[in-house]
What does this fold into?
Amino acid sequence: MAHQFINYRQAHAIASEWGTPVYVYDQKLLESLADEVLAFPNPFGYTPRYAMKACPTRAILQLFHNKGIHIDASSTWEIERALKAGYTPEMISLSAQELKADELKPWIESGVTINACSFAQLKMIVELGQKNHIGLRWNPGVGSGGTTKTNVGGPSSSFGIWNGYVDEIRAWVDANGVIVEKIHSHIGSGGEVEVWKQAAKLTLNIAESFPTATKVDLGGGFKVARNPDESYADLHDTGQTIHQALIEFKEKTGREIHLEIEPGTYLIANAGALLCSVNDVMDTGKDGYQFIKLDAGMNDILRPTLYGAQQPMHVLQENPPTNESDYVIVGHCCESGDLLSPAPGTNDELFTRRFPEVAIGDYLVIGGAGAYCSGMSAKNYNSFPEVAEVLIDPEGQPKLIRKRQTLDQIVQNELSLA
Ligand code: LLP
It folds into this structure.
């Protein structure tokens, strides 16, 4: 379950210094999650990568860099961002839905591994002069995600080369003297562990057809429990299955495969929270609802609106009252879609959460908000600025790692009519 790592005193100290809403991350937790990922079982060598799209803020990238974790980038822009945080090209692997030749060109031969995610991408990479160190992302034929929006495997998904084209790709690769170094797959986020294991084995089957491949990257997707009724993927157990599969692969083919995985969610989801203030409390009469309106919304945290995600929430008050009430939690943007407590399985049906009676000015912490929240917002909607981010260091001291955006920064690229 999402760790409640901020108490009232800390929340008050952070809010007094940097205002709310503000993202807060816990360094100790991040480091212990990194240690878990680093301990993934592997028989012949291993490189864990942080799927930086989960939260690409520089200090977070640096923290994982310090732990020896490499990078999974999803665009050439992310490559540049990782380099600015101190990564070297050799530490970065790119799997992108969009590749543009002019943007990719500088990275060819830089040391960044590029995983071709379609046949067209493969041809583009080769045309740009790269024939060695090629990675191929495959759709192994199965997928699983926490919602259909995060399932990226199987026939209804456009991610990776379809597994039915192994022979054609192999023939093309051979005909063009291309050296495939890595076989990659990623089938979804927050999906079922058993499907993940099945996909891993299907990916190894594909690797058999590419004798030059020395590495297999099995993507991310390990689910986490943000709420008490949810469960974590057991990394150790999953890793044991892969360990065994890699040993069998060696017995069958004589090849020792270097393993990679690239978790985002697992490394950071439960080590981040959005600290908000209650900006209004109102109701729609005796047959209606009571609403808590926050000073944050879909412009800061989009998961509830986009996926109907159930983010855990806690109210922090100096002197919590004893009576409780049921509240719908909404954001500060001007549409009913800015609903932070949707009913499970929906993104527009109102649902209530029970809290000690809430007053304007109380703090509300949205937990499980480290991954795909700060980095995946409807930024600047209603012209609200991108919020600040704070990291609580191992001594319990909060440090600013990203300033709140200013209005001038919001409009800086706009041009006036002549
Ligand atoms: N590798 C690749 C190629 C990916 O596309 C992703 C995530 C990952 C690794 C990391 O997956 P993770 O370990 O975080 O599940 N916005 C959604 C998640 C989308 C994930 C996109 N790709 C969410 O808020 O849950």
Remarks:
- The longest strand covers residues 272-283.
